[in-house]
Amino acid sequence: MAIGPLHGDAVASSQIGDETKNLDPLRPDPDGPRKCQQSIGPGRIDPSGSGRLDTPHAVNMKHLLRSSFLALAVIGLTANAYAVTDAQGDFLHSFTGNPGSALDILSANVTFDAAHDTFLLRATTAGPIAGANGAGYVFGFNTGGTANTPFAAIGEPGVAFNATALLKSNGTGAVGAAAVSTHIVGDEIFATVPASLLPSHGFADPDYTWALWSIDTNVAGLPRNADFAPDANVRVSAVPEPANVALLAAGFGLLGFVARRRARVTAR
Fold first, then answer.
1. Residue 8 domain flag
2. Are 88 and 193 in the same domain?
3. Model pTM greater than 0.70?
4. Are 78 and 237 a contacting pair, CB within 8 Å?
5. Cβ pair 134, 108 in contact under 8 A
């Protein structure tokens, strides 16, 4: 080892062949910090020194885990992409009925269940629904072709429909003259409507659009319309297919397996 002359901030160097390495503790190594390999079991060498398992099996598990998270995200977004929320207390100025909390829509959704060929209707209000005097909930559907747009005069020009389903606070519901199964639980009302009661006029069932508005059935004409949610039609959402549900279950199973495996590795 040859030690060169010391000038100001003395620098020591080590000559190994034709390569000179900086040994000055106050100056960083140009090659960056060195990491040592960490042995964590037979066949499990961690080149990063971080203590992570980088075996092929662990890498495969990481890829599967990422795929499962992606599947969960896609299914969640698909199931909730068209759910509608609405501000509380936003009754129309033209409404002349009783502005009870049961007519104040807070959220709504319509989903199409291809496996059973049905539409699932749901609405949530600001107060209990059962027994609310004259409260009704109209789901208007645009099934393609010519649609009615009768609400421009009351500030709702984006609502278009050529079929409706009416649910009432007394627990009944109908599409035209045909009764539909309707249920009320607290501030929620929901119903199942066979697709045969909402025939297409040009759109495929999953492409129907809809809007919801509450009405006071004790009032006639446009002043009976209390609250709209949304203010313009949105497309129905889809119930996840059985294959997607199976993928979701597999994803949760994989998460549980990885969690148990990591717990065993940590305990060693």
1. no
2. yes
3. no
4. yes
5. no
Domain containing residue 64: 55-82+238-268
How many domains does one find in the chain?
3
Encode pLDDT of 149-199 as tens digits: 999 999 999 999 999 999 999 999 999 999 999 999 999 999 999 999 999
* Helix axes of 56-80 and 242-267: crossing angle, nearest 10 degrees: 140
pLDDT tens per residue across span 188-227: 999 999 999 999 999 999 999 999 999 999 999 999 999 9
Q: Name the nearest CA neighbour of 23 among 31, 32, 15, 14.
A: 14
Flag whether 6 is in a domain. Answer: no
Of 127, 165, 125, 174, nearest in space to 143 by CA: 165
118 in Cβ contact with 192 (< 8 Å):
yes
CA atoms within 13 A on the CB side of 78: 16
**106 φ, ψ to 5°?**
-110, -35
